């Protein structure tokens, strides 16, 4: 009996997450799959790239765009060790990803469970700064 593809690709994400953790990153790995074939994979790299946007999901989406030669990923599935954050969730929606499969939910700002406006909510990880003062400038 063939192994469940979801389990197979989530195990691949776990390998990538372990590599990220070994490099001092958060233990997150992501894979983009099209027609049962891995198109792109990435490990979290925010510290090593010194870029807050170097989340595994975003890196995998970018690599998939490059591999396929276009930004339409509507026939793809994104796998991740963790529930994609709201930033990654925006990119997933933008690229039209058909399906998302993840291993662990996010207690704070996951793309399916976030509560409140991200900029002003206080329901964020404890190490985050308090919400900034937000000013909407009147239109001229």
TrEMBL record:
<keyword id="KW-0479">Metal-binding</keyword>
<dbReference type="InterPro" id="IPR016192">
    <property type="entry name" value="APOBEC/CMP_deaminase_Zn-bd"/>
</dbReference>
<feature type="domain" description="CMP/dCMP-type deaminase">
    <location>
        <begin position="4"/>
        <end position="115"/>
    </location>
</feature>
<dbReference type="GO" id="GO:0016787">
    <property type="term" value="F:hydrolase activity"/>
</dbReference>
<dbReference type="GO" id="GO:0008270">
    <property type="term" value="F:zinc ion binding"/>
</dbReference>
<protein>
    <submittedName>
        <fullName>Nucleoside deaminase</fullName>
    </submittedName>
</protein>
<dbReference type="Pfam" id="PF00383">
    <property type="entry name" value="dCMP_cyt_deam_1"/>
</dbReference>
<dbReference type="InterPro" id="IPR016193">
    <property type="entry name" value="Cytidine_deaminase-like"/>
</dbReference>
<dbReference type="InterPro" id="IPR002125">
    <property type="entry name" value="CMP_dCMP_dom"/>
</dbReference>
<keyword id="KW-0862">Zinc</keyword>
């Amino acid at each position: 009996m063939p192994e469940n593809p979801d389990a197979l690709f989530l195990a691949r994400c776990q390998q990538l997450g372990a590599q990220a953790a070994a490099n001092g990153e958060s233990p997150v790995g992501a894979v983009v799959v099209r027609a049962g074939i891995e198109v792109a994979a990435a490990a979290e790299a925010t510290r090593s790239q010194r870029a807050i946007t170097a989340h595994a999901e975003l890196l995998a989406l970018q690599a998939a765009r490059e591999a396929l030669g276009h930004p339409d990923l509507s026939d793809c599935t994104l796998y991740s060790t963790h529930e994609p954050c709201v930033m990654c969730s925006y990119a997933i929606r933008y690229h039209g990803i058909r399906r998302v499969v993840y291993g662990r939910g996010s207690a704070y700002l996951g793309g399916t469970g976030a509560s409140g406006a991200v900029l002003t909510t206080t329901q964020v990880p404890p190490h985050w700064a308090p919400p900034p003062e937000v000013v909407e400038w009147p239109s001229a």
